[in-house]
Amino acid sequence: MNFRSDNTAPAAPEIIAALTSVNESAAPAYGEDQWSKRLNETFSDVFERDVRVFTVASGTAANAICVASLTPPWGAVLCHREAHIECDECGAAEFYSGGAKLVLIDGDAAKLTPATLEEGIARNERGIHSVMPSAISVSQTTERGAVYKPDELAALGKIAKRAGLGLHMDGARFGNAVAALGCKPADITWRAGVDLLSFGATKNGAIAAEAIVCFDPARAEEIGRRRKRSGHLFSKGRFVAAQLLAYLDNDLWLKLARQSNAMAARLGEAALPFLSHPVESNQLFIKPGPEALAKLRAAGAEFYDWGNGQSGEARLVVSWNQSEADINAMIKALSALR
Amino acid sequence: MNFRSDNTAPAAPEIIAALTSVNESAAPAYGEDQWSKRLNETFSDVFERDVRVFTVASGTAANAICVASLTPPWGAVLCHREAHIECDECGAAEFYSGGAKLVLIDGDAAKLTPATLEEGIARNERGIHSVMPSAISVSQTTERGAVYKPDELAALGKIAKRAGLGLHMDGARFGNAVAALGCKPADITWRAGVDLLSFGATKNGAIAAEAIVCFDPARAEEIGRRRKRSGHLFSKGRFVAAQLLAYLDNDLWLKLARQSNAMAARLGEAALPFLSHPVESNQLFIKPGPEALAKLRAAGAEFYDWGNGQSGEARLVVSWNQSEADINAMIKALSALR
Amino acid sequence: MNFRSDNTAPAAPEIIAALTSVNESAAPAYGEDQWSKRLNETFSDVFERDVRVFTVASGTAANAICVASLTPPWGAVLCHREAHIECDECGAAEFYSGGAKLVLIDGDAAKLTPATLEEGIARNERGIHSVMPSAISVSQTTERGAVYKPDELAALGKIAKRAGLGLHMDGARFGNAVAALGCKPADITWRAGVDLLSFGATKNGAIAAEAIVCFDPARAEEIGRRRKRSGHLFSKGRFVAAQLLAYLDNDLWLKLARQSNAMAARLGEAALPFLSHPVESNQLFIKPGPEALAKLRAAGAEFYDWGNGQSGEARLVVSWNQSEADINAMIKALSALR
Amino acid sequence: MNFRSDNTAPAAPEIIAALTSVNESAAPAYGEDQWSKRLNETFSDVFERDVRVFTVASGTAANAICVASLTPPWGAVLCHREAHIECDECGAAEFYSGGAKLVLIDGDAAKLTPATLEEGIARNERGIHSVMPSAISVSQTTERGAVYKPDELAALGKIAKRAGLGLHMDGARFGNAVAALGCKPADITWRAGVDLLSFGATKNGAIAAEAIVCFDPARAEEIGRRRKRSGHLFSKGRFVAAQLLAYLDNDLWLKLARQSNAMAARLGEAALPFLSHPVESNQLFIKPGPEALAKLRAAGAEFYDWGNGQSGEARLVVSWNQSEADINAMIKALSALR
Fold first, then answer.
1. Contact yes or no for A132/A67 (Cβ under 8 A)
2. Residue C222 at interface with chain B, using a CB cutoff of 8 Å
3. Which residues on chain B are in Cβ contact (under 8 Å) with D84?
4. Which of A175, A171, A166, A228 is nearest to A198 (CA)?
5. What is the ipTM of this complex?
6. Domain span at residue C68?
7. Are residues C188 and C136 part of one domain?
8. Residue at A29 is within a domain
9. What is the least distance, in Å, from the CA of A119 to any CA of chain C?
């Protein structure tokens, strides 16, 4: 009953197979191989427009490069107080951007709303003595497992454009969002005004494969330079390209995401009285109190406390390969708390 | 007849098998898995002392983190004019270090000597108006395929210590150096005064697996922070750990390196009249003139020109999996030039 | 009736005279002149211990260099939400530190308390995925004109030491604090645990003269390098040294600060019903509402709105040279609001 | 007989007088005062076109901000091996630019030529693995006291434009260059293709007054941000503005520069057999050998050795206020060597 994180899951068999399949004879290095070269086209199909794709080693790298490409060093990046770029990346956004400032916005379910975003922009416009609002970063799904609907994102995108701010999406669990919404990937990205997407595959079945999807051709050159300079251009690029191609092939990514979302929904029903938020994707947040959490652990469940440890709140993340037995056991343990 | 780079080679079957072998059930993320945890011990065995190991995605990342850990932003890093960190990493060392300066030293075979190093240090000691000599970076094997002998390195290490400078080794082809020298890994690293080693596996049979080997426990905490902050801490760390464990297991790394060294030596005999340098590892530099290079290409050989394109010089890199047929064909083509 | 800022005031005649007095014949450049060389000794007398002094061109430079010297790039600097380094320096702390993060603490009168500081430290200790609490920055006087008493600072200093954090003081109005407290400069700096002080003279009668006062000899070398590298080492250093020597000579600084504090106290009595905070130094914050502020302006008063412009709050800053007539006129205008 | 540097000279009386003249009553802070506001217009007159002017505290700050505005962090800045930005600013250009690389070009008299510049550009165009040539920095006068003629600069400017590179001029001794050439300031700046000029006044009679002159309106916003962020926006801006206005008023700057140039020319005649370069401005380089230098020092002359101390070469800098007696004594001492 390991619900610590989808990062703890193994890779899907299709991903492993893909590595083997490209491991024959020599291939050009640094992204000039045939598989890497197919990435732009394949992602362009998925996103229904020409995009440029840059693979990197981690979600942190994808996020930091994207943020740095959208803000000058003296800029401010507006994001939620619980955003991964703020809380969990050891200041990568500040490092890559040359010292931009993250400006934090509060709100339920780790979401920005038009009102809180407008307020955050207004609060930071103080001329040359202050950092300059330059970009917005949203997470889809959010750090609380919530999902922005296309029109919610479009509303944020409209504000971004009006204010002249770039819009980045941290899509570490982008597949879970698309699966949950049943929408087109385009609907929650460029059609809503997103300029750069961190497209995550690692949590949802890959080994280590993240991609920066660039919807703005004018930024591509810079992103390529930033990637190389930070050591995220792989010499044997075929192996990360192969993962991503397999991930997108036959909608594997959506199958895996639907699976974890569905299992999470089942857990959500069992945990209904304790939910901090409605379950929208593959993460649940429950707040049954410290004693109840101790009981879950006693029953064999593994998960992270959320908040400061005394809050009695916990996060449960369902992975693509979570077993039926795991889920059933957890449902039983949760039901025992009611 | 692809002699472009060992980066173009596939991964060794043992490496691929290792990925599969760790791909079962959940494992803790971010280096807390059992395989990642074995890295310190395994490398400590190889290096005959306690070391701390930090995996990263690329040699550029390893080099840049090491250099940044050895110099303040206002420092100077002495390296050869042809060093990879100077020529081929898009300024990664400057990025990671916050703007340190690389001070370039000339010399045959891309090697530093005690004399040139002392001169470089002396030339840059000008008080507060100048950057402060802080570190030295050497490549083993060098960018010209040369190999530093243990006593050569010890002489550089002595200068480094006396001048209070850190010593970094770019070991992108470290296996080829150890194989060529038949020495202990310790003899050309910490015993000679090396503080930090970029230990490369990718070029010599891995998929994407590089390790920072830290011989100075006091620097380990900082290196861990720098790695995380730059996006090089893998969430599913087991997959890179598995590659490195397989690489070291049963001296696979030395077997592969001996193989490419030996093949290069055979090519070197055939190319004797054209060699820019004696062949010491798996790289050859030949200078038969532009017309001769055109003939080699006409015979099916692929390689990079070296220098400015009109120099008539070329680099040939032999990979771990270079076929006997390739080598024989190349020997034939080279012999035809004589 | 200009109460916009003490930055709008002219320089004291003693400061101007000092410039003339050092303007004869040649003098060594870059701080090797006789006046610059006297700074360490003079400040050591004032602070009752050996200190190292580094002059810079602005308070922003002093603050940013201090902060950068107390935190690694991956560190967190705890400060009040209204701190000058957060709100008014265009991200200088982030620039100089290589991207450290400012962690914001709320509290009345722009002050940190032991409780809020402890909470801020605890909230940010999350291991390698998060930035690492490394330093604390307090402003004396605060951005709300409040003054930390020696024991209040000592309590913060104790927490800093226990947690292994450096302690910086932004003393842009340090003279006003010392004058208000009637204490020794040492009592609110190194005796309380302050490591680095931005000692401001510009607002209180100088032209452009700020000094970093370093209480920790081990940091001096680094500060000198950071100053040079950022372009804050003056070639004709005698002119800034002369200002500082004149500023300290015969307690000029305290005379000027007492004068502005006393005038502010008089204003404070007149503004009693509208005060946001008790008046402790040379800044007043009043909140009589938008209409009352309009009346003050109609009466000829100049000042900045505080907050978002609709708050009906304003800041009044009294300068060292504020005329009796100005003060009396303002008292009359304030009294008319009651 | 102090010929160490023009940095050792006092300020001209007109500059001191200017400080006094602006020191009355309150004036808006941060460059909003009437004197600061006149800078754009005054410099626009001098340069015969609309320019934007940004005052800073030092030549290092001016240079570093200019360079950073012309190159991305992954860029290369081409400059002479002896350039001040390379040798004497403790890596300021690297700091401000976020780690750009200075690419060094050799050549007589510390000058770039079209041939060496083209070669430098070509040598560094190696695609994404290398830093990207982005800017050129020239010094006028050069670090060897040489002066670029308008057509020499125009030739470099043409190369810059063709290659898409920005062109910066380090004009720490710009006045000496204009005085030597008898040309219009425009002829050796924007008419020749210069984008940004570090206009120095400190060495030639000011206290501390340097200005970034921006010929490209599109860069002005960024320069203002970089200045603020680095702590070089003065709160009491009137005092630096006053220096610059007095410096330009009635061609004071050219009078002072002509004076030091003329005195240097006299010294040059006396030193003719020992000159390393013809004397073109207010700096002389002589190479009479170590013993001769010792004799000069024995005669009371102060100056810096040039090169490594054993070279027997020295630099003599003539200041605006160098006395007739000084010059005559030095001429006598030099003549005694012949």
1. no
2. yes
3. none
4. A171
5. 0.96
6. 13-251
7. yes
8. yes
9. 11
